[in-house]
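Recall the central idea of this unit: under ordinary conditions, the amino acid sequence of a chain determines the structure it adopts. In this exercise we apply that idea directly, starting from the sequence alone.
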Amino acid sequence: MNGFAVIFLLLNMGALLVLPRRWAPLPILIGACYIPVMQVLQVGPAHLSIMRILIAGGLVRMAIRKERLAGGLNGLDGLLMVWSGWMLVSSFLHADPAVALVYRLGLVFDAAGIYFLLRSFCRSIDDVAVLCRITAILLVPLALEMLYEKAVGQNLFYEAVGDPISLYIRNGHVRAQGPFAHSIIAGTIGATSLPIVIALWHQNRKEAIIGIGACAVMVYTCASSGPILSIVAALGALFMWHHRD
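Accordingly, the structure predicted from this sequence is:
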């Protein structure tokens, strides 16, 4: 983890600890969107990414401020805990259980940590609306960088942390990946964020339009068919809203 990433982490950690509850997801989303996933702090066999450190900071915040899950545990919480338990137990079915267990501990910490933090921070429909607005705005710099990356062939996120990478190219066209591990992941994030920003349409139309544009740019610049199909699935799900009963 280079100096830029360390300063970035410290600023986001400070914001996570002091921001009001409704805005607490902001530094977590910034950490997910703007620093390459390869930036890690290795402690023994554990690889601590910026996201994992921020999740740990969020759990510390919950303990200090005595923030709890809205409405207590529910059925979806229980399903996630069952999944987490099976992820860990099934590690012992692998050829090298120790390696599998360490890897899956990281996956469980990421998924369950983010899930329960957002369950604590977002306690009402207004909190969810704020989260959607934050997402719409944060996607804009991502989309602009990916557009630049596709046009110029230079990944600004990886170069900012001193870790230049080889670009993904198919049929002579750059497949932009932003700060993510692969261009498909970058495009899929844009695709799966589309319903979130469309949800703002009636209350914050300007932000909805900005978010929709950012999502479309991310899917276009990644040059992958998977995210396109994800958009089709997302829009299909939205059209089913009128038949929800």
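The chain has a mean pLDDT of 90.
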